[in-house]
Amino acid sequence: MLTIQDRIKPSFGGHEKFAFRDGWLKKGVDAVCEDPLIFSSDDALVVLGVGKNMVRSIRHWCLATNLFVEGEGRKSPLSLTPMGNQLMTDNAWDPFLEDTASLWLLHWQLVSNTTRSFVWHLVFNHFYEAEFSKQSLAAFIQTQLERYSVSTTSRMIEREVDCFLRTYTVSVNTSRSAEERLDCPLSELDLIRAVPQDNVYRLNTGPKATLPVEVFGYGLLTYLRSVAQHRRTVVVDECTYRPGSPGQIFRLDENSVIEYVESLSVLTKGKLQLQESVGIQQIYIDIDVDQPALFERIADSLLESYYA
């Protein structure tokens, strides 16, 4: 039987210290549609219109956000995932990421990836400090890596932390060039706020006005698919605070989760229902829990209805 250490084999540094920028993911998706081997080709710099390190970074971020997958070996062909096809091809839901819902969806994909974005996964699933410094976050990451028997250097951890923070915060360093100050689109989600005067950062937990119920529902059903085996009910507390839950990944409070579930009861025609038992709020699952594919089908239908 595989242990969690066997299942989690993170890689570091593929982002080349760049958070992804506006248009990068679309460049990557379009390039792979034209040539599945583009990222191992000498033509990649010309086709993508960026430098060598940025080419590697675009490849990394498209893989980390589950837009495409690779075969065996670094120079193997790349292929779009169903998410990549549905979200970002030319006639897809939102190829230019003009809808904030798409950014929430990419955030979910990114934070769920324990291989290419392990630090992102750790922070949004296992980190409970509302306020932190770079140093305290790096110390937390070091402790977690030791727990999972993952070896790396303090310098690599520092780079991962720096890139993680650039993914979610707006640049305030006016000494950097305009090119260096191009912020990651995920900074629009306002999940992490920099407090420069105190040299700290704050995780923004609470209601998320720009998070559609359909995207929350996609996350909830994805989570329930993994934890609800042989269970008809899951307590709201679990869906708010447990690692992998939408409450954790989207940084929601319990009242917000309850409001989303109430809305989902209508959207799913009762497949998910909010119930109370001895004062405990629970989600009743009117889905065959022995057929995980049904969870995926309903989750996909929520996104399809949103983008229709």
**Mean pLDDT, all residues:** 92
The total count of helices amounts to 14
Q: Which structural class do you get from the secondary structure elements? A: mainly alpha
Number of domains: 3
Helicity level = 40-55%
Largest sheet: 3 strands, antiparallel
The strand line-up of the biggest sheet is 3-5-4
Question: What amount of the residues lies in strands?
Answer: 5-15%
Show unreliable segments: 1-6
Order of helices and strands: HHHHEEHHHEHHEEHEHHHEEH
Coarse shape: globular
Distance between the termini: 42 Å
Task: Give a count of the beta strands, DSSP E runs of length 2 or more.
Answer: 8
Radius of gyration: 20 Å
Outline the fold blueprint:
Blueprint: H1 4-7, H2 24-34, H3 44-48, H4 52-64, E1 68-70, E2 78-80, H5 82-88, H6 100-111, H7 118-126, E3 131-132, H8 134-147, H9 154-168, E4 192-195, E5 200-203, H10 213-227, E6 233-235, H11 236-241, H12 246-249, H13 254-267, E7 272-277, E8 280-285, H14 292-307
